[in-house]
Amino acid sequence: APDEEAKIVFAFETIETTGRCCSVHTAGHVAGLAYYDAAHTMRSIHPVYGPWFGYRAVITFPKRLWSKALPGGGGVGKELASPCPETELMEVSNVQTDVLGKWGAVSEAESWAGLLRVTDTFKIGAEHRYSEPQARFHYAADKETRRAVLKECTA
Q: How far apart are CA 23 and CA 72, in angstroms?
């Protein structure tokens, strides 16, 4: 309804910075948008886009009554299934463990490049991988690089 109050929590919000937060991965899973792999990779995996998408906010309508039958909300036969085979999840998990284990022991640029390597390990959604400029922007260790990419892409 037009006069209905909505509450928006952005993915970047934390208890420390704004006094509120939301697990966007859990919300996306419960809404049926993407499978949340809490057991291995702690990543949301879309059945088409794989890991190549991002949540920006969760919008709720506090006065609305919700059905317990949301697509990923659980219950017999209602839980979202992983779009990846277990072997792929384990492979990604191993690469991720390696990358995070080196964090702080290697340069910041190498650490961020490692995060891109983790995401690149997924086979699902590979055709939707970020373009090179997008990857340089999203996985840049510093704001100067991100600004340079933006300038390059808008020139």
A: 14
Give 88's contacts (C-beta < 8 A, 6+ positions apart): 122, 123, 124
Tokens (6 digits) for 107: 């340069």
For 19-53, write each residue's pLDDT tens digit. Answer: 999 999 988 988 889 999 999 999 999 999 999 99
| 11 residue type, one letter | A
HSE value, Cβ hemisphere, 13 Å, CA-based, for 66: 11
Q: Is the pTM of this model over 0.85?
A: no
Contact indicator for 122, 45 with CB cutoff of 8 Å: yes
Amino acid at 109: A
d(CA 98, CA 63): 45
Nearest C-alpha neighbor of 115 from the set 130, 94, 100, 127: 100
Helices (H), the chain: 15-18, 24-30, 86-102, 108-121, 132-138, 143-154
